[in-house]
Amino acid sequence: MMISYLVPVVLVLMLLAASIRILPEYKRGVVFFLGRFQAVKGPGLIIVIPGIQKMEVVDLRVITMDVPEQDVISQDNVTVKVNAVLYFRVVDPEKAIIQVEHFVSATSQLAQTTLRSVLGKHDLDEMLSERDKLNDDIQEIIDASAEGWGIKVANVEIKHVDLDESMIRAIARQAEAERERRAKVIHAEGELQASKKLVEAANVMSENPAALQLRYLQTMNDMSNKNASTIVVPLPIDLMEAFRHMAKGGGD
């Protein structure tokens, strides 16, 4: 008699144990009744009838995904290897389960193709200098495509842009040439400014002969302070003016 009552009790307990699900705060359960979508349940205690109902559990926390290294040909025909990291989360568990098979894998494939497509439209210099803009463009495209799967892309970050050794040397030569060009331009600008100042100084001295005399004496003083074997014999400016007047008189 006891065995006849014990068997049903054990079956009922096993059925209850198989029916009880406990979901934490960061998970939701998508429940199907006879294969049809019924509801999204959780968190807390969930009762699922075995054989009639089925529940798929979805994690709502942000998922960090490494986008594998991709071979990208830039717009200026430079081959680079680029990898990135993607941050996304499920905002609609129903769509994440029903609209796409294995939403994590689908998002990974979408991120890889988008990374190659977006970076292929830019030059190498833009990849290296405008990384924030490229991150925003990639995030916007992935987010728009994954929205129908109930997924929200929080952020995309390009981690590495690897170049061949030959390209690294070419970039180094380009940077060196650019620095030389800037040095020559700065030197030319300095010469131009100096020539303008010399013209202004000459105009001032031509208006006042005494200024020319003072400059002449200062130049002689600077030359005398140097340790040189050259002998300099100063010649008065007035004497030079007299010779100049005499030469004009003789010519007349």
UniProtKB/TrEMBL annotation:
It holds the Pfam family Band_7. Its main location: membrane. It is found in: Membrane. It comes from Halomonas beimenensis. One of its GO terms (cellular component) is plasma membrane. This is Putative stomatin/prohibitin-family membrane protease subunit. It comes from the Bacteria. The keyword Transit peptide does not apply. The lineage of its organism: Bacteria, Pseudomonadati, Pseudomonadota, Gammaproteobacteria, Oceanospirillales.
